[in-house]
């Protein structure tokens, strides 16, 4: 009797786990990206309305002291150039550049040295985006995929994006498929 019960329990668990894993592949979490009104590193105003101009937007959070962040910038620039034709945007968020003029100048120098042409936000640490979102990031670089409706698609990509290109591609496909 115990053997039969154990076998049935094992079969039920295996079936349950299989069913859960297959449905999770299709499940895409969508969370609204926080509304924001910030400036870029050149002082130009930018709001979350920018998302509606593209089928999807890659949002990469970085800071001046993050070697991995700075190292991946040329790779992100390549992605930006590649995806422009597909109506996919890339935005950097220089997380600490709004803390002082010195931090902003450092960020501007890094962007220039790395040949970055994509837009980079310089968030004000007193604004909601910084307090409620950026301050909660687990580490840098952290990258999100946002659809045209301003929803984050899936979990954050933490670490070098190039090392996780399959995940990036899947999330972009999911964001664009929602159209």
Question: Can you describe this structure in just a few lines?
Answer:
The chain is built from six helices and nine strands; from the N terminus they run αββββααβαβαβββα. The protein has helices at 2-26, 67-71, 73-84, 101-113, 128-133, 165-177; strands at residues 30-32, 37-40, 45-47, 56-62, 88-94, 120-122, 142-147, 151-153, 157-158.
Largest sheet: 7 strands, mixed
Strand fraction equals: 15-25%
Order of adjacent strands in the largest pleated sheet: 3-2-6-5-4-7-9
Let me know the average pLDDT.
87
Q: Would you identify the CATH architecture?
A: 3-Layer(aba) Sandwich
Distance N to C terminus: 54 Å
Q: How many structural units, i.e. domains?
A: 1
**What is the H level of CATH, i.e. the homologous superfamily?**
Glutaredoxin
Helix content estimate = 40-55%
Integer-rounded radius of gyration: 20 Å
Q: How many DSSP E strands?
A: 9
- Based on secondary structure, the structural category is alpha+beta
């Amino acid at each position: 009797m115990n053997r039969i019960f154990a076998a049935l329990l094992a079969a039920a668990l295996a079936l349950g786990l299989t069913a859960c894993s297959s449905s999770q592949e299709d499940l895409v979490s969508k969370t609204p990206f926080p509304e924001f009104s910030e400036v870029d590193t050149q002082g130009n105003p930018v709001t979350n309305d920018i998302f509606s101009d593209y089928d999807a937007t890659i949002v990469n959070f970085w800071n001046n002291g993050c070697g991995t962040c700075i190292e991946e910038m040329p790779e992100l620039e390549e992605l930006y150039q590649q995806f422009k034709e597909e109506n996919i945007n890339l935005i950097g968020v220089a997380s600490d550049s709004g803390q002082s003029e010195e931090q902003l100048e450092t960020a501007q120098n890094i962007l220039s040295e790395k040949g970055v042409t994509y837009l980079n936000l310089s968030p004000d640490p007193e604004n909601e985006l910084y307090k409620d979102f950026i301050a909660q990031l687990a580490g840098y670089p952290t990258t999100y995929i946002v659809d045209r409706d301003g929803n984050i698609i899936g979990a954050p990509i933490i670490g070098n994006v190039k090392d996780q290109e399959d995940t990036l591609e899947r999330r972009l496909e999911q964001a664009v498929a929602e159209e």
